[in-house]
Amino acid sequence: MGSPPRIEEATERLPGGFVHLARWLDVTASEPVELEVIWDGGDHVGELAVTERGAKHSVPILGMRADRQYEVRIVATNSSGVSSEPTTLLIDTEPLPDEFPAIDVVAHHPDRMEPGLTVFDVTNRDVRAQYLLALDGELEVVWYADQTWGDVRVSGHGTLIGQRAGGAYEMDFMGTELNHWAREGTTGIDFPKLHHEVFPLEDGSFLSLANGVHQMSDYPASHTDPAATQAGAVKTPIAVNIGADGSTLAQVDLGEVLDMYRIGFDSLTTEGGLLDWGHGNGIVPHADGSMIVSLRHQDAVVKVSRGGELVWILGDPGGWKPAFEPYLLEPIGPDFSWFYHQHSPEWSADGQLLLFDNGNHGQTPYAPEPPAERFYSRVAAYSIDEQAMTVRLDGSWDDFGPQSPQYAAAYGDADRQPQTGNILATFGSNVAEGDTDNADLGYGAWSVRIIEFDPEDSTHPAMDIRIVSDRELGPKGWWTYRAERIEALHLP
Fold first, then answer.
1. Whole-angstrom distance, CA of residue 141 vs CA of residue 126
2. Smallest Cα–Cα separation from 301: which of 414, 409, 223, 404?
3. Per CATH, which fold does 7-92 belong to?
4. Is cis: bond before 405, omega within 30 of 0?
């Protein structure tokens, strides 16, 4: 069998300065070896097998909890199958920062949850604390970064990819930047800014949203007076497909496809001096290569080809001119209701569109009656028949037990989970729970709820967490953009 290998040195090393609860473990052995590494924090154990032999290894230790001492046990095995005596060292993880959000657990049933970790961004609007973090199945923080992200998900090869720093950004869980697609990034692109979504495709390209600008002399100036107009620069969403090399593979300016004289509530607001006509906030691929785009200020989700041909419009038909009527999906079935100021479309192969319905205003400006006094948010699922040009409401969920329904005035997400069929819903900026405003609950102006539920029984969530601030100490509160359930923290 021969002599056992020796571990000659084992030391810990911090990753990049903005990543926490992670370590590099540098191991030097007397000969090429495989490694088995186990870290034990008393109430939490992790392990990693390194099967590629080498005399020197840098091993990522990921998934540790805060403010604990971990005993790390390392065993090396050579090509003859002979193992070393264990080598141990201690790693002390840092406590969470004072301004870190407290996770209020409303409901937690691990046996009914989708396996994996919950990853989301969170921002404190009072002290501007910003984090991207991961919770394990016991809702303990096991990784976080001092960074601002918008949309973020794990790619097919185990990296984080999303919208950050004005473009698309990719890094690993140890904080190593792998790419930054931006006008001034490591990979240059043709657009000054990308926003709201980065959806990676199998060919290495991704879908995202950019902005166009149209100068108009007669843009609508009122929700109630159709004769009132104004001159100004109007921002329009551009659906883009960008290659791995930064090249533009497709671009469709929705202002050139749709009616820029149709406005929704908030189409008269400005951002950066530009009238925000459509406010694109989501883009996902269709199986036929087309793009599905969410337009919040139009209360519409549309499907367009890569060449800019309109296929259908899903949304309240109020205000669309006769030329667009052939593209409007006709509602069928019982208990149908439209969505308003929606976020985060998710398309499935069977023709179902899942989305987060923020519910702002509860109607378009073209409705004959004034808006309701209170609004509510929900998750909604629609089945679309492109041949018949019809749409059916398959599901609507707003009752998650106590303190329901809720109203998230901005942001939101809804993701169906592959193993359990559960839906992970993100109420990104709640301003009310039940019929009670945040102010009357003692919360800051915005708060967060992330809820995982079975579509067959939404009133008993598998997971329900809340992030709030005390109104006296943090009057602005917390918000998040989206949450994702991922399999694990790992390097590609």
1. 22
2. 414
3. Immunoglobulin-like (2.60.40)
4. yes
pLDDT 10s digits, 313-329: 999 999 999 999 999 99
CA distance 228 to 130: 42
CB atoms within 10 A of CB 350: 7
pLDDT at position 34 is 97
Contact 163, 133 (CB under 8 A): no
For 46, the token pair is 């992790």
> CATH fold of 104-486, please?
Neuraminidase (2.120.10)
Q: How many helices (H) and strands (E) does the chain have?
A: 1, 37
Q: State the DSSP string of 250-288.
A: EEEEGGGTS-TT---TTTT-EETTEEESS-EEEEEE-TT
Q: Give the separation between CA 333 and CA 366, rounded to whole angstroms.
A: 24
- 408-457 per-position pLDDT tens digit: 999 999 999 999 999 999 999 999 999 899 999 999 999 999 999 999 99
For the chain, the domains span 7-92, 104-486
Compute the distance between CA of residue 299 and CA of residue 74 in angstroms, rounded to an integer.
Answer: 56
pLDDT, the chain, mean: 96
pTM listed for this prediction: 0.96
Give the strands of the sheet with 352-357, arranged side by side: 330-332, 390-397, 378-385, 352-357, 343-347
Convert the pLDDT of each residue in 120-171 to its tens digit. Answer: 999 997 888 999 999 999 999 999 999 989 899 999 889 999 999 899 999 9
